[in-house]
């Protein structure tokens, strides 16, 4: 009798374990109510915020509209200014140096820099240019460069240095076949010697006409704990394209060269109305507790809308005007972006003008730590 009793217990344990594993393996779904119009206070999602007032010198004027990436390493803050310069400050905001210069020689860029990535262990900085990828040390010294994946009509959308290799999301543009024009998205793996060790296709997207669109919220490959997350947004989301009405609403995790669906945003009618996309998603990312998205509702005037879902409280927040910084009492609504090396941290900036300012100061950078 005891033996039969123990057997039933074991069967029940195995049965419910299988149910739990099946539930955990299901694609997580998060509804987005685009009719909701709130502004989430940062105090609701933030453990603490560090304020860094960036020093303004003759060498370090920053146009805040052109900040496209912020990196942290040791005691340094590194700012990517689109198609301009790379600025380095310390954590107190003191200006240290610029990295890179314009030109056609080794270590120089013809038209500026974008897509920074950081090898924190070896203190190396990788910067993408229109023709090559350049590696510098954090003192600004040129180390090496490569033009292997740079070719005509290709766009390096994002890169991140993870587990001793560069992961590069590249879009080869306007390739023609019997069906028409298409963009080909691939992920390349590259080692420290700039050798391509592997690559795999993400998707082919057919387009009606060559139209490009870039946005500063395009953060595609993030590393959290031991998991790599990847989101690939559409390149021309503001154009009506009847041949391509798919809503790219899923965040994937990358396991070797396989994309595993992690979570999905659920918009009414899949964000499609009258056969056209009315919702264009720029980015989906997550921390250990929160799911974030940036998108555009074509039926509204606002350029960006923001979404945050708290998996601990099962609450979603839709914000056409951005977040409220109730901690630093900033009146203007702000938008937050994750650090590509640690999505438990986010950043934003704001320019504080005083009545006595004779010129516009550098923006103040804020680094936030999310609640868990």
Span of the ends, CA to CA: 47 Å
* CATH topology name: Neuraminidase
Trace the largest sheet across and list its strands: 1-20-19-18-17
Give the beta-strand count.
31
Count the domains.
1
The assigned CATH architecture is: 6 Propeller
Provide key terms for this protein.
372 residues, mainly beta, Neuraminidase, 5-stranded mixed β-sheet
Q: What's a concise summary of this model?
A:
By secondary structure, this protein is mainly beta. Helices cover 6% and strands 50% of the residues.
Which helices and strands, and how do they pair?
Layout: H1 2-25, E1 28-31, E2 46-53, E3 67-73, E4 76-81, E5 86-90, E6 95-99, E7 101-102, E8 108-109, E9 114-119, E10 124-128, E11 133-137, E12 142-146, E13 154-162, E14 165-177, E15 180-190, E16 196-207, E17 221-224, E18 227-230, E19 250-255, E20 258-266, E21 272-273, E22 276-277, E23 279-286, E24 290-297, E25 305-310, E26 315-319, E27 323-325, E28 330-334, E29 337-339, E30 342-350, E31 364-370
Parallel strand pairs: 1-20, 7-8
Antiparallel strand pairs: 2-31, 3-4, 4-5, 5-6, 9-10, 10-11, 11-12, 13-14, 14-15, 15-16, 17-18, 18-19, 19-20, 21-22, 23-24, 24-25, 25-26, 27-28, 29-30, 30-31
Question: Can you walk me through this structure?
Answer:
The protein is mostly beta strands and 372 residues long. The chain has one domain (32-370): Neuraminidase (6 Propeller). It is 6% helix and 50% strand. The chain is built from one helix and 31 strands. The chain has a five-stranded mixed beta sheet, with no helix packed on it. A hairpin with a 7-residue loop joins strand 24 (290-297) and strand 25 (305-310). It is globular, with a radius of gyration of 22 Å. The N and C termini lie far apart (47 Å). Residues 1-24 have low confidence and may be disordered.
